[in-house]
User: Fold this.
Amino acid sequence: MMFGENCGMSSTISLPKCSCCHRHIMPNDKCVKFNCPNCGEVLVWRCESCREAARTYTCSSCNFQGP
Ligand SMILES: [Zn+2]
Ligand SMILES: [Zn+2]
Assistant:
């Protein structure tokens, strides 16, 4: 049995998740995305409300927390 890179259904659009509140980010959301300033490996997403509330995010790779 082979495991391809694309196993499963590819019809569902995978929305990015906010790194602060873990909600899905809508395409029309005024979100920001940037790489983790500590490890640079993880793309951090912040939704509009978290950006305005200046919530801290946690990097899923290095656990760096930042505003
Ligand atoms: Zn959020
Ligand atoms: Zn990181």
In short: The mean pLDDT is 86. The chain has one domain: 15-67. Residues 36, 38-39, 42, 59, 61-62, 64 surround zinc ion (ligand 2) (CB under 6 Å).
